[in-house]
Write a structure and sequence with these properties.
Helices cover about 45% and strands about 15% of the residues. It is of the alpha+beta class. The two termini are about 25 Å apart.
C-alpha cells in the first residue's frame, strides 16, 4: 500500500492567518525550516520536493491548540484536573465527559489547507478509506478503460478475535504461509481468467467482475488538513483493521512534517 505526495496548499502559518482574519489581524513565522519529501514518497516528482516549513511563535501554537480543542488551555486543564481527582461522583464524571465530547472545534482554518496524495490499496481497504472521508474527493483508475494485469496484495493472515467480538483480528495465524499460498493461487487463477476474458473480447467493464478483492486500486485523493486528520483519527484507532491502520500511518508520514503544529493538535 502507498500514500505518495503530489502537492499541497497552505501550512501552519496559514492556519493561524485564516483564524486571525476574524479580527483583521495577521502574524508572521519566527523563521522557516527546510523539509525534503524524498522521491520515493512522491508521485510525479522524480527528484523529491523541497518545502519551507514555518516555525511559529508560542502564541500562534496556543491559538492552533485552541482551534483544535474548542476551548482554552486553561479550561482544558481544569477539566482534566477535575477528572483525575479522587472521589468524583459518577454523575459528575459523566457531565465532564459530555462537556468534552461536545466541544466544538474551530475547524474551518484547518479546512482551508489542502493536500493531494496518490494512493494505492486493495479494494476493501480503499472502501474503508472512502467510508471515513469528510469532504474529500478522489479520481480512481477504472477497469472500464484499462486492461493491464492487476497487482495483487498479499497479506499476513491473522487469527480471528477471541470471544464474541465480530470484527478485528488476533495475532499471526500459525498456518499463515499455507493460507498465503492458497490465497495467492486462487487469486492468480482469477487474474488469469480476467486476462483470458479480455483476450477473448469480453468488455473490460464486465471482465473485471471476476477479479478478487485483493487486487490493488490506485487513486488520487484530495482533501483538507482537517479531513485527513479525521481520517487518521478514525483509522488509527486500535479497533480499525490492521491494513487501514498502516495506510493511515503512511498518510500521516506525508502530512505531519508539512503541518507539524496543526497535525499534532488535531491528532493527539
Amino acid at each position: 500500500m502507498q500514500a505518495l505526495y503530489r502537492n499541497h496548499m497552505g501550512d501552519d502559518l496559514e492556519v493561524v492567518q485564516d483564524a486571525r482574519v476574524s479580527f483583521d489581524r495577521t502574524t508572521e513565522a519566527l523563521f522557516y525550516q527546510e523539509h525534503i519529501i524524498p522521491a520515493e514518497k512522491c508521485s510525479g516528482h522524480e527528484h523529491g520536493v523541497l518545502v519551507d516549513i514555518p516555525v511559529l511563535s508560542e502564541a500562534d501554537k496556543r491559538l492552533i491548540g485552541f482551534l483544535a480543542r474548542g476551548c482554552t488551555s486553561g479550561d482544558w486543564a481544569n477539566v482534566l484536573n477535575d477528572i483525575t481527582e479522587s472521589g468524583i461522583p459518577a454523575a459528575e464524571v459523566e457531565r465532564l465527559a459530555l462537556w468534552i465530547k461536545r466541544l466544538p472545534p474551530h475547524w474551518t482554518p484547518f479546512g482551508q489547507q489542502v493536500i493531494k496524495l496518490r494512493m494505492k490499496a486493495p479494494v476493501p481497504i480503499r472502501t474503508q478509506a472512502f467510508k471515513s472521508k469528510i469532504g474529500m474527493v478522489e479520481n480512481e483508475e477504472s477497469r472500464r478503460y484499462i486492461d493491464s494485469t492487476p497487482e495483487l496484495f498479499i497479506p499476513e493472515f491473522r487469527e480471528r478475535p477471541e470471544g464474541s467480538i465480530k470484527q478485528g483480528s488476533g495475532g499471526l495465524h500459525p498456518h499463515n504461509k499455507v493460507f498465503q499460498k492458497l490465497y495467492t493461487d486462487r487469486c492468480r487463477e482469477a487474474i488469469d481468467t480476467y486476462e483470458w476474458m479480455i483476450q477473448e473480447g469480453v468488455a473490460p467493464e464486465q471482465a473485471r467482475f471476476v477479479l478478487p478483492q485483493g487486487v490493488y486500486v490506485n487513486w488520487v485523493w484530495t482533501g483538507s488538513l482537517y479531513a485527513y486528520a479525521e481520517f487518521y483519527n478514525k483509522r488509527q484507532d486500535s479497533h480499525a483493521q490492521g491494513e487501514i491502520q498502516e495506510l493511515a500511518q503512511a498518510v500521516a508520514e506525508i502530512i505531519e512534517p508539512l503541518f507539524p503544529v496543526s497535525w499534532k493538535a488535531l491528532t493527539q
